[in-house]
Amino acid sequence: SGGAPQADATIRAVFERFDANRSGRLDYSELRNCLHALGIDVTPPEAARVLAQYDADRSGLMELDEFVRLARENERLRAKQAEHDVVVARVLAERRAAEKAKENGDGAMDD
């Protein structure tokens, strides 16, 4: 996709900002702060579970490539949620319009 290099640069910058000891890896505490910066609030146990889920090499730490995968999946989920919210809003608006038309009588759409 066209914006991938820029997105990767942003993800890398966030990762590096929270890699407090400059190890190139995030422990679960650093990961928790990093997730918070991305708008994902997690408790310490949740951060540990996220780390375990994405820790491909089972090092107990999250490397940049593992973090990139997490961040991309999070973006996909947010995009899906946004699409869902738009569909729900449209359905609700159509339902309100239909109910208003019914109140006006014969189903004709009057203001």
Brief summary of the model shown:
The chain is mainly alpha-helical and 111 residues long. It has helices at residues 4-18, 28-37, 44-54, 64-103, and strands at 25-26, 62-63. The chain has four helices and two strands.
Question: In words, what does this structure look like?
Answer:
The protein is built from four helices and two strands, in the order αβααβα. By secondary structure, it is mainly alpha-helical. The chain has a two-stranded antiparallel ribbon. The N and C termini lie far apart (44 Å). The mean pLDDT is 85.
Structural class: mainly alpha
Total DSSP helices:
4
**Percent of residues in beta strands:** under 5%
Indicate the percent of residues in helices: 55-70%
* Global geometry: elongated
Q: What is the straight-line distance between the termini?
A: 44 Å
User: What gyration radius follows from the Cα positions, in whole Å?
Assistant: 22 Å
The number of strands is 2
Major sheet size, sense and barrel closure: 2 strands, antiparallel
Average pLDDT rating: 85
Biggest sheet strand line-up: 1-2
What is the H-and-E element order? Answer: HEHHEH
Poorly predicted spans: none
